[in-house]
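Hi R.,

Here's the chain you asked about this morning:
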Amino acid sequence: MHPIRSGEHANANAHSASLLGLGAALNESSLVQGQYHAVCRGARDDVYADYVPLFDRLQTLKREQAASIFSRMPAAGHIFVRSRLSEIDRLQALCESMEEIKGDHTYHNLVTDVGARYLLDNGLAGSAYTAAFYLGIISSTSYTGVNASDTMASHAGWLEAGSANTPVYSEGARRTAAWSAAATRSKALSAGLVFTFTGSGTVKGSFLTTVATKDGTTGTLYSAGLFSGGDQPVVNTNTLTVSYTASL
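And the predicted structure, written out as tokens:
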């Protein structure tokens, strides 16, 4: 039997290392990953009293615009419509000049067991499937933790914020996710989703699900994530803009 020379040892070790590295790379690339990004904005303390009525007026005009009140005006009302749209732009700019960033959070998600099965079933074997996802937020109330076994019907460690639990937000439903085209093994929301708070409270994180109803217990809980830099307290008029990127 010929002895194994040191060079052969080196080649064998290098080959083994390359296989281990390949295995690690394959394992890493096979993970379903996701990352949330949330930015909380609000009025500076020194202008808060002046900011609130301006903000309230802006929200009223935006609701009227969203309800198409402006677009239903007769031709004679076009001057009125233009003046209202101009007022929205003016108030928007004025409010933004009085705001500051209250918190900036980048945090990873936990893809739930049911969320992973949902992705696999519909992505690999779906038939006549139309995706619909909605983003909600997690309250600090009675919070103990998120778990991979969580579902919309059963998530004992956390409560949803927005309606029954603080902080309450003005939007009537969880925010609708709209996606950009996938690129470089990732798919991101085409724009951040905004929550406008009408009272005080503390946000722990966010979640992605398939039903829009606030506090709803149906649908599939795809993922949940917690702010990595700590909880985010909010007050009336604060906004939270949340983005999400999924990667494979």
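Confidence is low (pLDDT under 50) at residues 1-30.

Let me know if you need anything else.
M.
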